[in-house]
Design brief:
The complex is a heterodimer. By secondary structure, chain A is an all-alpha fold. Chain A has 21 helices and no strands. Chain B has one domain. The chains are: A mainly alpha, B mainly alpha. The interface between A and B is large, with 98 and 80 residues.
Amino acid sequence: MSSAVAGWEQFSKKKTATWLLAIAVALGAIAMLGSTGIVFALLLALMLTGMPISIALGLTVLTFLFFFANVPTEAVAMKLFTGIEKFEIMAIPFFILAGNFLTHGGVAKRMINFATSMVGHWHGGLALAGVMACALFAAVSGSSPATVVAIGSVMLPAMVRAGFPKRFGAGVITTSGSLGILIPPSIPMVIYCVATNSSVGAMFMGGVVPGLMLATLLGAVSWWRARKNNYPRMQKATWGERAKAFRESVWGLLLIVIVLGGIYSGLFTPTEAAAMSAVYAFVIAVFVYRDVPFKKIPKVLLDSASMSAMLLYIITNAVLFSFLMTHEQIPQLMADWIIGHHLGIVPFLLVTNVLLLLAGNVMEPSSIILILAPILFPVAMQLGIDPIHFGVLITVNMEVGMCHPPVGLNLYVASGITKMGISELTVAVWPWLMAMLGFMLLVTYVPIISLWLPHALGY
Amino acid sequence: MMKYLDHLEEIIITFLIGAATFIIAVAVAHRYLSGVPIPGLQDWLLTINMSWAQELCIYMFVWMAKFGAAYGVRSGIHVGVDVLVTRMPDSWRKTTVVIAILGGALFTGLIGTLGAKFVWENGMHYAVLNKLGMAVGELYEGPVTPDLEWPTWIIYSAVPLGSYLMCFRFLQVGLGFLRTGELPHHDHTHVDGVEEMPVLDSTEALEEYEQHKFEKDGKDGGAK
């Protein structure tokens, strides 16, 4: 469901008809491939009407079962009930709740102050601080678009005032805002683990090193460009100021420590860690920072509940969909085909990269992972790819997809707050986007980056 | 009437997420505190069995998910692929949106019926007849949950109830769209406590200055 978005080009009837015809031909061609093709053509057609992704998945499954296959409806009904009945999945609502308590302008400002006091005096000081603040805020809030808004609306005017070109600021914030899904706790990672039965703890640890590396890389690009163009630097903060800024932001940052420390030390299961982080975030937001007044608590709960319900609803239907996939033996056929043609790991990963980037243009990360992971994962396992490495590379792909023109989610959000057009923003983000693409390839083909920490910690 | 239904829906899901968080937090605290040797307290804690917490949390979230999904239709939180639809001419867009909404209503209606049948056959039929004191015959009593030992058909009735409610919400949204041409829209980028950003860069500020610099003079009847 959608409404016309301001600034989107509206096609004429003739152009729309041409597009629809082209899409119909393409889908028809896919449907010719047999029952597998019909499933995907149907799914794509339903999704393009703009109906919720969850509904499109569910309708595809029901239609297919009704017309083509002989699966007892009892089995489907059973899946409907048991689809989300796993304690691991319940980490998702808890993390969303924790994030929503801390997704507040006040928390963003504290992180910005801390980041500015630490790195503000280097070349491109405010830009570096922007990257660092995005990384910190994204880690506690868990939402990329919200990070772009919360950090961007403070940082961008400050940068323009300090004399940075607007494009530079927009480029930094748009790309850095996507860091959140790689730095734990991350909801897309939990979803990947649920979809593939991987360990949430190992996955979180796997995200730490790539997350820090990517933040450093984005910072390095900003530093290099700022030095070249001689952008302004801030005055060096004293250690007293740094300590004060740290003391103010540390309550938010401790959330990451609770989650990672709690899971690693074995104090909590991942779901319990998520619940504890929700309670912690509640206490911090309401009693320590006092950003959230008592009156607003039900609103935060309601928003988190409906957000989680939306994700859980997609999960339920994605479980149905992957049940259909397995029933039709689609992953198995794909794996056999790839192994039969001696294609090996590199082409498979390349195809995965391209597929995920394309999907990243039309869907948000959780839905992509839920639809594609059950199909790609069995193939990856047959090829001997490590499940954690595969998960991390999917996550990095999702990040790039969010900043990727023509229709990355972060680009649209940034366009909304900067009032810059998409094409102008595309030019603005490209140095960082190129760095991210390079990093994506690095993570894809060098497994040790994602696997070193989990292995060192004994996962 | 509709207002009460809306409120009830909101209260149910708000309560469920809050209570589930509380229960898990208490269960974890209980597990660690009962390991601390404080006389009296430890003995008392050991008499409490919290092993049902995990199961209850799951069921609360299942209910939250089903009713939250219905609330989500009303608040427009369900994400879809809108690259094509937003680019269509208005009249075409209208048709497509109606098709999408009807698809949603169809799916949720089907699932509701499927779920109702399942629930009826897996214990509800037995329970109803039993309650009424009628002969249950060959009917199957239905399974119970492992820890709480509640009949599963009660837990699973979330599916038909939630789905029918969701179906109703889709029809409601569809009717609203036909009447006003507007859809509920959820702002995924809203952040509290962020001031509306003053979008002013130096050139825009200069332009604004150029536009307004004569106004004051004009009023005062100054420079001409």
